[in-house]
What we know:
Largest sheet: 2 strands, antiparallel
Strand content: 15-25%
Distance between the termini: 10 Å
Number of strands: 8
Strand order of the largest sheet: 1-2
Structural class: alpha+beta
Shape: globular
Amino acid sequence: MSAEILTSKICSCCRMNLPIVDYFLNKNNYGGLDHYCKVCKKQWQKKNKDKINDRRKVYRREKGITGKPRKPRKQKNSCYKSRGKVYAEDWFLIRMEIYVRDYWRCKVCGTKCTIKGKTKIQCHHINHNHLDNNRENLVTLCASCHITIHRDKINDWIYILKEIRTMKAS
């Protein structure tokens, strides 16, 4: 059984078949993408602005959150920087494709990954070169497996991944 890579999806609202980059991430949905495309989602949010704000107020009151929510920081340039490393400007889209391709599962232990916590989803460069964003060089890992790989400096990753795949196939 070969896993098909999701490259496009049909929007539940406009019924158009669009590439996956035209959808917001939503880890609660199958495939990790929202049901509506970005255009339809923004239209829905604009139409239901009062309803959304009311829900937000109730949530903030229940959680005891006071003051204004922080505004997201604007990046000075188009590149993504993390811990001193510079990534490609489309790094978020590349990671999303890898997460969807791997069904939000760690390729080592098979754990269903989440956005935060012990099973936080992370994208690993197999050859340890963060500038090489070739899709075959990227793999989804949970935080604990990612730490193990970097701590032990596992370089025979390709061999390990092939063994895991053959074990799962049989």
